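Handout, page 2. Input:
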Amino acid sequence: MNVLELAEEYLRPRSLSLETEKAYRQRARSFATRIGLLEIATVTIEEVIKYRDSVLDDGCSMVTWNSNRRHLRALFRYAIDCGWVAKCPFKPVSAGRENIRPKLVTSSDFIVALQAIGLRDGRFEPHGFWRLLLATLALTAMRRSQLVGLKWSDVNLSDEPIMLLRGETSKTGREYEAPVCDLLFPLLVEFRRRARDAWTGSTIGFENSQVFNLHLHLSGVQDRSSLTRDCVSSFFRRLARDSSTVISAHRLRHRAATHLLRDGLDLRHVQDLLGHCTINTTQRYVWPDMRVTTAALNKHVASEMHIYTHVRL
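Output:
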């Protein structure tokens, strides 16, 4: 059995999200591509070290190596449990120290990105579609997969506007609701009206169709689902290049979490909005705001000015 076959055996009895399954297959394929389709029982520590060096030498970050190692260790632990191998060759090869930078999108970067959508004709068509997609990600903190999987039947635009984020579109398999804020509400109402006018089929078909149905808004082609995760990723790559900003769906989640906490929302509510199972995961999304820290230091100095007046050059 090679590592690709091991990944399939590992996934077969589990009920994981499509995104998680894809991640395991990608890590297994990465190892097989760089090291070869070795029998898992013959993989040694030396092969793992060779694989690590290959990943890092290609310019991948330590975060990438640690993620690959974590997934592949899980596969080999499963192989040990099944009696297919005696030891995990990934265990002695340690994870590297990650130099994690804040994954934030500043307000100015966000404005530049929104403006870049309409600067080049034909580059991001239709402009309103992509701008609303950006705003929805920023104001709901949903994942790329949740945006792609969102149907009109999941969106309640009545008295208490909410979006139902179904378990099958969530990374954790958790189903929860996200509020529709006052700014987003009228935009979604108008967006729905235009989509419904373009839809020539039954109401049932429309309700089960994708909210961000690109083909429908681009050319009027009826398709229950046309926007994919890869399509969203491609959009962000082009937008980052054209606007010279670092922006992605994931970074917009970090932006939402940080801004909401800075504005006074407690950590438990932010956890619910992000759909995390634990507070610890949510805390990794939150980055300190230097303005808040500076204000706190200035307040501290003001309260103890009688001490700091003795500091002179």
